[in-house]
Amino acid sequence: MSAQLQDYLFDLRGYLILKNAVSAEDIAELNAALDAFPKLEYKEWHGNVERFDNNGVCGTELQNIVEGGEAFEKLIDHPSWVDLMRHYCGEEDSYFRGLFIDECFASLRRSGGFFPIHSGGHQSELRVQYKYEHNVFRCGQVNILLALTDIGPGDGGTMVIPGSHKSNFQHPDAHRQDFGAHRHMDELYGVHEVHLKAGDALLFSDAIAHGASTRTNPGERRVVIYRYGPRWGATRWAYEYSPELLARLTPERRAILEPVTPRRPPALVNA
Quick one: which of 22, 261, 220 has its CA closest to 109? Predict the structure, then answer.
């Protein structure tokens, strides 16, 4: 796909699907790393990774997963998407260009639960806003959702409303009090469920109205999500990266996790 077509589709729909973004070998390595993870209780830590479920009925979320080993470190600046992130949310052609990872976690979902539709252009928070102005993208947050397992019908796939990243109105049914009783979020008019093969990635503006359908199939849906933004951002949950991780990263990866080096007087730098 040409760069011009990617820009057109991202602007039109608010998302792109990157087929075969990560190799089968790397997907196997990521799954093996998750298999080796101890079973954590809510808010329990393993090293510098915390189980912190954003929506408990939807399964386990392992936050700060970049601390989970080299397999996750390689995703920081993965060539399948890092240049797209620089283009869409890296303050391209500005004096402060560069990226920052706002949040990164692994999501493991079994049967039951769904994520209700949230976000949308009508809210337009600066943190996640979609913006194209003066021939450059100025998005506040763009996400990569990497499938570690095949995600098809009944697997609890991510759901989006194409074009809603630029909408001036909230979906008229999104606020209904009885909507939480619906088993399938795809009953909301205009919603599209994204199906992926293991190794495919969904790149989407966080301004798009999105959620996830109910998982009804047996087994487990596994994804990792890395949220990128401009380098002046701050992490959503205030996680700090361990000195051990920062020390072993390549300069390019460290510049994304720690893009703004603290400026200190010499006495403190050398202390």
Answer: 220
